[in-house]
Amino acid sequence: MSMRRISTLALLMLTLGSATAAIAVPNPLPPETIAQNQRPNRPGGKEGAMFEKLNLSADQKQKMQAVRDRYKDQISQRMQAVRQARQELQTMMSGTASASQIRDKNTQISGLKKQLDDVRFESMLAMRDILTPAQRTQLAELMKQRRETAKNRMQNGSKPQ
Hints:
By secondary structure, the protein is an all-alpha fold. 80% of the residues lie in helices and 0% in strands. Helix 1 (3-16) packs across helix 6 and helix 1 crosses helix 7 (133-156).
């Protein structure tokens, strides 16, 4: 693979995998609250804003939504499984579980995270197939800008918004 393809693929993975932060820090809002705050038929968060900048055709938007719908439940279920296993690990760490049991739980979490990453990757590939080569290049530039902005925020000590 050329560096350009690898770079584009990595950028798409970052774009489509932005929910990783949700796993690391569980959302304090209940799902009902989150659902109420989202606009219907509109992609959510920064990912949606980035796709808006790509000037997708109506057909591309429809296909992107179909991909999101196809993978949404799988991703959600796997994220919930990871969260639950992490909570169980925290409980085990503060309890009387043996080191062996704790290691087993950690191995389980690693496997669950791998499954989640695999589903996200497949989703990302499906979305990538919808984009034109020019849109892929544009997305790579948008992701580069996003990373630089995040890097600058971290260096300046300010929190990302």
